Amino acid sequence: MLKKGSKLTLPQLWKTLSAGLQEAVSDFEKREFGLDTMSKYDFLSCEEIQQYINYEDEAGKYYRNLIHRDDSIVLKTIIWNRLATTPIHGHSSRGCWVLLTKGELIEKTFIRKDGKVFQTDEAILKPGEITYNHDAIGFHSMENPSKTEQAMTIHCYHPPYDVTSVMDEDGVIKRLPLTYYGEEGVI
Ligand SMILES: [Fe+2]
């Protein structure tokens, strides 16, 4: 049992998320539990994450690294090189939580209506901040606007998924398999 106010290591983070999200019934309960748990992760002094930080130094690219997967969640870290940008994409049906651990990212959210794509929001994510999304909320894109600095995030998806929906600017959706640069610390 964790003491109130104590911080989570990486294995504690995935164990807590996995059990708690499985147990929570409503989307609201899951959302709150995920936000609270992610906010307790000790990203400033965590050393266990180092083995999962694998990437190549190429501008415009981002690198997914799988940390943990079970029946309830997928936990991954993404390393965002300078000017890396995702396409507009969807998420797990019950929730996706993203904690920014380094740098800055811009998140844009979108909806599709009558075959057209509309941007609904734009926010800057800073270290320690968490965003939440799922398929009923809409699609989003993320980008590292910096020309010099890398950014890093930790993502929890519930339930786990292997195929993502990517939407082009005309609102056409394609289903693409998710791939990882590194899996459980191995490239
Ligand atoms: Fe996303």
UniProtKB/TrEMBL annotation:
Catalysis performed (reactions): L-cysteine + O2 = 3-sulfino-L-alanine + H(+)
Entry keyword Metal-binding: yes
Domain of life: Eukaryota
UniProt-listed InterPro entries: CDO_1, RmlC-like_jellyroll, RmlC_Cupin_sf
GO BP of this protein: L-cysteine catabolic process
Positions in coiled-coil regions: none
Signal peptide coordinates: none
Binding-site residues, Fe cation: H89, H91, H140
EC nos: 1.13.11.20
A single GO molecular function term of this UniProt record: cysteine dioxygenase activity
Cofactor binding comment, as recorded: Binds 1 Fe cation per subunit.
Keywords: Dioxygenase, Iron, Metal-binding, Oxidoreductase, Thioether bond
Needed cofactors: Fe cation
Record-linked SUPFAM superfamilies: RmlC-like cupins
Residue(s) of cross-link: 3'-(S-cysteinyl)-tyrosine (Cys-Tyr): C96-Y157
Family: Belongs to the cysteine dioxygenase family.
The name this protein goes by in its record: Cysteine dioxygenase
